[in-house]
Amino acid sequence: MTGKRLPYFEEHTEPLPARIATGLHKIGLAMKQQAWLQANQEGLSATQGQILAALVAHGPLTGSELSERLGITLPTISDSVRVLVEKTLVTKSKDPRHPRASLLTPTKKGAMLGARARSWPEFLAASVNDLAPEEQRAFFSGVMKMIRTLQEQGLVPVGGMCVTCTYFRPNVRTGASPHHCAFVDAPLANEQLRLDCPEHGLAAERARREIWDQFMRPG
Ligand code: SF4
Q: Where is the HTH marR-type domain (predicted)?
């Protein structure tokens, strides 16, 4: 005698985390393809575009700082910077903080291309716009937590996010804006948290863990 069979999709559906990962993989492929297409139109490689965009967003940086922020190896950064200097899109000057390092600054044309490269992920923002406000909030919270986990695993550069910032004071009050940014001395709501803040100051490893624990324990 055979037992009662489960409904088809209960037996033939991958767990939700695996399907979310598949969805993110598809989005990742679309991003790669768009970045490649748009970089090509500008006569750049995707990495060169990312470098120019980072220099426009954060101001002059060294090669090591770029490598850290973009999660790209230093030799790859150095190769791309060499080409950007040859194309007169970036200039090198002595870094007053580290005399042996060079500070990279975009030229006028480099800054213009960098500003355009910053808008490359806009096609994604347009699709996120179609989500309902509560879906956007849940998605943002999920994305932020995923990035934090990947940062802890060393797979995503640690930086730019409020939840790893020395100025971030999580859940210091109740209400719609429970957090506080000590850099600008202003309250922050969950949906206002930054993922790529130019003023970000990286907290020490232990402090990062404490900030996260406090963040995950709403008053
Ligand atoms: S400085 Fe930027 S990253 Fe740091 S807490 Fe303030 S808004 Fe967030």
A: 17-148
